[in-house]
Every structure is written in C-alpha cells, then in structure tokens.
Amino acid sequence: MMRVSWRSLRFQIMAITVVLLLIPVLLLLYDLIFATKSEEAMISSLEERLGSLLHKQVVPGLKETLQKKLGDEKFINLDPESQASYLQASFTEVTGPLVPNHPGVRFGLYLPDSNQIFVQGFLHEYRQLSPQESRERERRILNEANSGLMAVVASRRPLARLTTSLNDETFEYLTPLIIDGRLVAVAWVDERLHPIFAQSRYFRLISRYVTLFVFFACTGGVLFLVHNLVRSVNQIKEGLGHLEKDLNHLLPDLPGEAGQIARAINRMARSIAEKEKLEEQLHRSERLAALGRLVTGIAHELRNPISVVKTIIQVMEQDLRDVHDIRQYTDIIKEQIDRQNRIIQELLDFGRPTKNFVHPASVNSLLDKVLTFTTPLLRQHQVQLTVEKDPDIPLIEVDGERIKQVFVNLILNAVQAMPDGGRLTIKTYADNNHVHIRFSDTGPGIASEEISRIFDPFYTTRKDGTGLGLSISHQIVASHGGNIDVTSSEKGATFTVCLPIMDPTGGANHGTNNSNH
Question: What pTM was computed for the model?
Fold first, then answer.
C-alpha cells in the first residue's frame, strides 16, 4: 500500500482542496439544518399565535358586533357606503381594546368592493398622526399588503407570509371575512419581527451567496491548479522523452516549481552532454594516437618499396627508350607512384604531426591568401562565394601554413558537397576569447548519424576520398588549442573553426607542443 507523506505535493494539494471545499459545505449544512429549522419554528409559533388571535377574537368579534349593530336588517341589503360604515365601526370596536394588549401588532381590514382599508395599531412606536398622515400611511400599507390581499380574495382561504416593510421583516396573517356566503372583507394581523431576526435572515442570505461563490471559486481554483500542474507534468514528461533521444533538446521554461525542476533537468542534460562530448574527445584522442603510431609504421614500410619501384622505372626509361610505346606505360606507372606517395605523405602527416611554428597572424589575411588560389576552383564548379570578414578581428598566434591547410580542406569539402553548384558563405568574427571562422554550404547536409564520425580517420562518403582531410584539419586546430564544430540541416552544413586569441602579454592562450589530438 502506497504511503503519502505530508511533505509531498500530492498530500498538500489534497489537503488544501479538502479544506477549501469543506468550509462552504459546512456553512451550507449549518444554514440548512440549524438556522432554517430555528427560523421555521419561530415562524410556526407566530403563525399559530396570530392565527389564533385573528380566528378566535377578531373575526368572531366582527361578526358578533356587526350583527348587534344591524339587528334584524340584512347586511347584503345595505348599500356599499352603509356596509363600509358598519364594517369600519365594528372593526374599530373589536380591535380597539386589543391594541393596548398587543404592542407591536397591527390589525387591518380591507374592503375589496370599495378598495378601502382600515388600520388599528402600529408596528413601531409612533406619535399621533394627522388625518393627512393617516391617509398616506393607509395608502402605503395597502400597497405593501396588496399582493396578499388579492391572493386571499381570489382563493377565499387564509394566508400567512413574511413580508418586508420599511426595511423590517413582518409576519402577516390574512383571512377572508364571509357573511351570508359572500366575501365582504379581508381581515389581517401582522407583527414586526425582532431586528435581530431580520438581520439574521439577511446575514444568512448573504452567507448563502458568499458560500456558493466561495465553493465555485475554490472548485475553479483547484481545477485551474490541477490543470496547470498536469500540463507542466506533461511538458516535463514530453521533454524527458525528447532528452532521452537528444540531450540538446532542452525542456521549455515553465513557471513556478515546475520551472525550477525543468531548469534543473536542463542543467543536468547540459552537464551530461558536455561530459559525453569530453569522453568522446578523449576516446577519439586515444584511438587517433594508437592509429597514428600504426599508420606511421605502415607508411614507412610502404615508402621503401615504392621508392625502389620508382627507381626501376627511371632505369627502364633509359635502357628501353627504343622500345615502342614504353614511355606511355612508364608514365602511367609513375603517375600511380606519385599518387601513392601523396597518400603515404598524408598518412605520415596524420600519424606524426610536426611541431607548430607559431607567429602572430590575422585570420582575414590567411583567408585572403587561401581564396587567391581556390576561387578559380569555386568558379569552375559553379559555387558562388560570399565572404563576411570582421575588420576589427584580433590577431592569433598560429602556424599560418597549417591553418591555411585547414581552410583549404574545408573549402574543398564544401565544393565536393555541392557537385551541381551552390553557395559557400565564409564569415569571420570574434568573441571575448576566441576567433571564429565559419564555412556554410548549401549542400544536402550531413546525416545526424554521420556527424559524430566525420573527423574519424579513413571515414569518407566519397569513393575517391581517403578520409584523412577532416581528420588532419581537426588535428591541426586541436594542436592550436582550438576546435571545429559542425552543424547540419536540410539547407546545408556549417563548419566553424574556433581558435584562441593571442594573449596581450605576448603569448598565446595555448601551448605549441606537438599534439596527437
């Protein structure tokens, strides 16, 4: 069973989510279970008390008093004004004694035929009102109670409800007054609730909205947090998948803790890539050193018999000069001997590099000298040349002839990569510590699996190549304390030679000893 630590991100998110969602849920439960039940109990008590007052005292008293006043006369036979007068007098007589005994209770009588209203008692402690103020008060009360009155007139049934009057909570109980089977009036009793109750209801209403808002806000916040977390985790997971195939494919920059993790992974990837690069350089140096010793021995052994063959050919030309077409055959043999001598010399240069004779030199000047005799070759192969030279580039301490050999090899390599023509761009520039010479062609580029091998000796993709040109160039640059970087795409390959700038104190930033790379 998996254990979850309180320090883990998973536990913290779960705890925060539970707390944030539990608070509004508890508030809603309190409001629904306790507050609502206490409110219902109080309203039920009010309904019972006011209903009893209305049904047991007001309505029976009205009917009894009205009957006494009418005597043998029928109420329905009276004209509307007389009916209103009798009802008003009876209502005043019945409710008058009740008002002092029920402070804060208001009694009312509504006549639907004449749309008149009579009121006894006050919800608040008021001063004595003038006739004009009394009429204004009755008009306002009629407007406030109108919906309840119309409901009772239409249904002819009692109605109990909570209303708001002058920012007060009021409970009113209304009942129809029926005489001889006809609804002649609506009697009601209302009482102002304690201000604490009104404030409590208002507070609960606000708290419900706030609770719902907090609930949805917390839910949205948690969903947003989880969404961002999942997205960051997916980005890191995808980035690790790419890093597994290519250490140079770094993770994107992310916000928050996920960004710190991504940056830590990127630093680790760069460290691993640098370590692998150094290990590859070390292994290559070891292989080249061992191979150089082998090649040097083989080249010496090959040079002696080749020299003997060349001497014999020269003797044959003298002794057999009268033989027909002998010159034709000896020229072919000497051509092949010279070719083998060049290959053997390359092997010796590779296996036993000579000491660098360094002196201050300008990269731009060395490049101009190389282009002097390579430009016709570029025109011959329909290669357009673009040169971008930094005029303020500093001097470097190098063996000029050997660096020119590197430039020639890289130019020839670019020409061979563009057999049908193209463009070669050469650019020189400098940074704080190094001078850079960049050679960019528009050939088909170099396959990713071949880039790591192009500087290996005898590795070539051309049928007539020896595979030593780039190896020797790499060896020469390394012996000067520099390096050659290679990048490739579908638009071509770029070789960048990096050489250290000359030390202002008079020396170079590297040694001049022999190097087997």
Answer: 0.42
